[in-house]
Amino acid sequence: MPDQTPFRQSRLDCLLEQFKAVARGGDPTRIDGMRRVLRAEGLDDERITALYIQFTMRDMPDDFVPQADIIAMARQDRAAHAADCTCSRCGG
């Protein structure tokens, strides 16, 4: 997790707003990139998935459907990796 600096919360707030825009845009490549950035900031996959659901459940057209594969992938990753995993995908 990055050092706790006076600006960390502001940086995290900005990243979460960016993630919201990316999630609502629906581009899987950009979503995956933002997930990696948020992991590097210390958020775990469960929290990131919850944010994805929260961000895509509001202000969307009636026919919008969140990408279930992203949710399933996060659940699968969580089950497949130990909490102290240091693989490159987990940011270790």
Can you tag this structure with a few keywords?
globular; 61% helix; single chain; 92 residues; mainly alpha
Question: Secondary structure elements and their pairing?
Answer:
Blueprint: H1 8-25, H2 28-40, H3 45-56, H4 68-80
Task: Explain this structure.
There is one protein chain. With 92 residues, this protein is an all-alpha fold. 61% of the residues lie in helices and 0% in strands. The protein has one domain (8-90). The chain has helices at 8-25, 28-40, 45-56, 68-80. Helix 1 (8-25) packs antiparallel against helix 2 (28-40) and helix 3 (45-56) runs antiparallel to helix 4 (68-80). It is globular and about 40 Å long.
End-to-end separation in angstroms reads 11 Å
Structural class: mainly alpha
Question: What is the string of helix and strand elements?
Answer: HHHH
Task: List low-pLDDT spans.
Answer: none
Radius of gyration: 14 Å
Strand fraction: under 5%
Q: How many domains? A: 1
Number of strands: 0
Overall mean pLDDT: 81
Number of helices: 4
Largest sheet: none
Helical residues, percent: 55-70%
Which word captures the global form?
Answer: globular
Brief summary:
The chain is an all-alpha fold and 92 residues long.
